[in-house]
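A reminder from the course coordinator: this example appears on the midterm review sheet, so study it carefully.

Given structure:
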């Protein structure tokens, strides 16, 4: 309906966008609109081939006819390894495509940038082969950084990089982005799909790699030697994974490692990280790999890193042959499944791993910010998860600063409170620096339930029509626990509950209600006799365990360790409820923490009551003045 260039001009003139950022998008928009007359796969093949042709001979495209472009392609690619077939397939009336590609290159400031802008919108181009297994740029950068390619190239001047599942070359290009301009890398890979293999070759050529340093071949051909190997395991549906053993492929790659060589493998988290039953072939292979001493790090990743498969939970294995190593028998575990894979997290993970045991670093000189060093012998038992979270490190100075901040807060609370109000309790945390010693032991919720130190009760699935505002039993579901709805706003009738939900169990006073979806939330039901709505669940503390855990303490420890963050694009929480861990505090600390939480609860209740009263006073006053029934006396309000 509108001229696209006028739209761009208006956006720039009104300060809503910068021309350099959106002109390339205009070229992609034109390519998508005009390319509707061609099959999507042919359009992408032709456009990338033309970009590559212009990179090779540095001549404009639109100044030549289609016949002349075919002659240029024959001169630039006589062996048809890159682009000759795609340009020969162009129809005689495809001159518009050459013009649009030229505009895209100019707007993107170069052939390399134009190629990447085109692949960045691969999901809009409707070419499934390009986006089915594509990973986010952050994940590709993490894999490239963990591979050690940059360090190898700086030491030897060159590096051989391989990917046995090259696809469109995402991981190979990510590794190239880590290298300096004065290095001379060689890229090899395997890809059965000729369309993707040629895309990968063209992509590397446009990034400045000479064609003779690129070898993307068919799987099954003799593998070329490589210093760094980055790859991903093929996607397999969840229901078929128990019959598969993808770690057999990882073992083959590991067996071929020479000293100083590194392999980074992306695969399903349920195979690489989760606990495996002993009868699965993958469990035996995983134990063999761990025992070999060549598993350097295991990283549990957040969801959403394979955009086309948002429910696909992934993990990374970093394998390296470092001999001799004083750290044999140990492995690094890192769990970032509960946070977004930001640039800071990527850089921290890379630093944690590469400074651990690789040549040139002294591990004791570098503290781990995320990864945890764990003995391999503790991970080879049945159903053990290869995951660990490092609690935030608090130095003694930072601890003292924290305590000083808490004292300031307590003083401010005391100043706000009315000294004459006896009913308003004072907040006294009594915090002090913990003496150095062994860390506080932790336990998973699932383990506490299994040993009957906690009782877990599932929530009830309620029909929406049965939830009413004036029933006898309050409904506690995800809206109430996550704070989206006040407790008591949704209820269910006693007769309906007895008739339609005879197996529903009411809460007892002191039950802790937890939900993991749509985000983490926890609530203590002090009154009881409520109905918990699925997917929320009840955690009930037996009477004999109340010295070790109280409802307030359990809720506070769960909330402190699991803030409910979820990476963008993830459709599942980072952990299941039974996987959440809490510290097992000494009974004396539990008692003091419970007293502090009880005081805080009372202060919150009084504060909410005060806010409600203030709101009501102001509302009645404003309404009375508005309808003329009330007035304000001349006596100052502060003197009353």
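Designed residues:
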């Amino acid at each position: 309906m509108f001229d696209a260039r006028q739209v761009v001009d208006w956006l720039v003139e009104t300060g809503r966008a910068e021309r350099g950022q959106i002109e390339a998008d205009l070229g992609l928009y034109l390519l998508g609109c005009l390319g509707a007359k061609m099959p999507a796969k042919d359009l992408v093949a032709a456009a990338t081939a033309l970009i590559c042709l212009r990179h090779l001979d540095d001549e404009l495209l639109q100044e030549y006819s289609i016949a002349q472009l075919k002659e240029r392609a024959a001169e630039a690619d006589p062996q048809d390894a890159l682009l000759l077939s795609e340009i020969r397939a162009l129809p005689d009336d495809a001159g518009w495509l050459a013009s649009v590609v030229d505009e895209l290159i100019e707007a993107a400031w170069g052939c390399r940038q134009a190629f990447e802008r085109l692949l960045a919108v691969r999901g809009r181009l409707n070419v499934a082969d390009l986006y089915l297994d594509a990973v986010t740029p952050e994940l590709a950068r993490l894999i490239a950084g963990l591979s050690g390619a940059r360090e190898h190239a700086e030491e030897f001047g060159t590096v051989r990089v391989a990917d046995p599942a090259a696809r469109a070359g995402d991981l190979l290009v990510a590794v190239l982005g880590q290298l300096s301009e004065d290095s001379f890398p060689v890229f090899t890979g395997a890809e059965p799909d000729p369309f993707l293999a040629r895309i990968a070759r063209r992509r590397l050529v446009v990034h400045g790699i000479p064609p003779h340093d690129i070898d993307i071949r068919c799987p099954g051909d003799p593998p070329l030697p490589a210093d760094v190997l980055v790859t991903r395991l093929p996607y397999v549906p969840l229901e078929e994974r128990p019959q598969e053993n993808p770690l057999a492929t990882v073992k083959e790659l590991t067996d071929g490692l020479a000293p100083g060589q590194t392999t980074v493998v992306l695969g399903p988290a349920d195979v690489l990280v989760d606990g495996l039953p002993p009868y699965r072939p993958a469990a035996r292979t995983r134990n063999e790999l761990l025992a070999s001493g060549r598993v350097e790090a295991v990283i549990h990743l957040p969801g959403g890193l394979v955009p086309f498969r948002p429910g696909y939970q992934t993990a990374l294995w970093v394998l390296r042959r470092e001999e001799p190593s004083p750290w044999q028998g140990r492995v690094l575990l890192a769990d970032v499944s509960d946070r977004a894979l930001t640039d800071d997290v990527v850089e921290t993970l890379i630093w944690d791993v590469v400074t651990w045991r690789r040549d040139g670093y002294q591990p004791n000189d570098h503290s781990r910010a995320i990864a945890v060093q764990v003995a391999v012998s503790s991970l080879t038992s049945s159903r053990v998860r290869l995951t660990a979270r490092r609690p935030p490190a608090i130095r003694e100075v930072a601890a003292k600063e924290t305590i000083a901040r808490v004292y300031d807060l307590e003083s401010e609370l005391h100043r706000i409170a009315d000294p004459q109000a006896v009913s308003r309790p004072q907040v006294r945390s009594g915090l002090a620096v913990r003496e150095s010693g062994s860390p506080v032991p932790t336990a998973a919720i699932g383990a506490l339930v299994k040993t009957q130190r906690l009782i877990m009760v599932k929530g009830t699935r309620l029909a929406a029509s049965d939830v009413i505002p004036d029933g006898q039993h309050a409904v506690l579901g995800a809206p109430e626990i996550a704070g989206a709805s006040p407790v008591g706003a949704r209820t269910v009738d006693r007769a309906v509950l007895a008739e339609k939900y005879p197996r529903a169990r009411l809460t007892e006073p002191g039950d802790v209600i937890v939900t993991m979806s749509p985000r983490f939330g926890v609530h203590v039901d002090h009154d009881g006799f409520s109905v918990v709505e699925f997917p929320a669940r009840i955690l009930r503390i037996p009477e004999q365990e109340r010295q070790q855990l109280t409802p307030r303490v359990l809720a506070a420890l769960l909330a402190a360790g699991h803030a409910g963050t979820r990476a963008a694009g993830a459709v599942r929480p980072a952990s299941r409820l039974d996987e959440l861990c809490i510290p097992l505090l000494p009974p004396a600390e539990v008692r003091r923490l419970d007293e502090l939480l009880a005081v805080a609860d009372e202060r919150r209740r009084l504060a909410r009551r005060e806010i409600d009263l203030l709101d009501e006073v102001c509302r009645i006053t404003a309404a009375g003045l508005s309808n003329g029934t009330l007035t304000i006396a001349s006596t100052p309000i502060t003197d009353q």
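The longest strand covers residues 262-268. Confidence is low (pLDDT under 50) at residues 393-397.
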